[in-house]
Amino acid sequence: MAKSLVEMAAELVQAQCSSTSLTAEEMAQSLQATYNVLHNLQQDESRGVAADVGLAKPALTGSPEKSIQKHKIVCLECGEEFKTLSSKHLQTHGLTGREYRQKWGLSLRQPLCARELTDRRKKLGKARGLPDNLRKSIAARSGKTTTKASAGTKKATAGAGKKTTTRKSKPSAAAKSAATKS
């Protein structure tokens, strides 16, 4: 024969009392709270509602951009919170980062991590000189030179028969390390 809710609640509170000391009032409150939880679970089960104990999904109303917050990003598939949505986590939903962004209408350039982390990475990249190096790389690929030294050389060669001098730029850290290795 199945146990009643009161019996189950009493057993749970009794187990709790064996590990911690409770006053009579605290035991009564604990018994009542335990009974109410068991009663609600039983009602949910009878209605066919799966009860997620302690796993409440966040209420994200409005646009999916609200899932990307300052200190966390909320997975729109399962409701879990992360600092960054890794490809490993997205694989559990059968998605890639690109597919996730397309499914939820996010920009394909939107980082899938908390804004705080994105800002920190941006500052570190600027401190290392990535924007300038990227511009130089793009200019080198397209055949254009936009550095100050080359601009000065073009102006000097435009003059009729003038002797031109070019400034030499200092080698980059990568060039120095490559030179020391060889």
TrEMBL record:
Entry's Gene Ontology molecular function annotations: DNA binding; zinc ion binding
Listed Gene3D superfamilies: ROS/MUCR transcriptional regulator protein
Any single GO BP term: regulation of DNA-templated transcription
Biased composition (Low complexity): 142-163, 171-182
Region listing for Disordered, in residue ranges: 126-182
Family per record: Belongs to the ros/MucR family.
Pfam families named among the record's database cross-references: ROS_MUCR
The protein's name in its UniProt record: Transcriptional regulator, MucR family
Species this chain originates from: Desulfurivibrio alkaliphilus (strain DSM 19089 / UNIQEM U267 / AHT2)
Family matches, as InterPro entries: ROS/MUCR_sf, ROS_MUCR
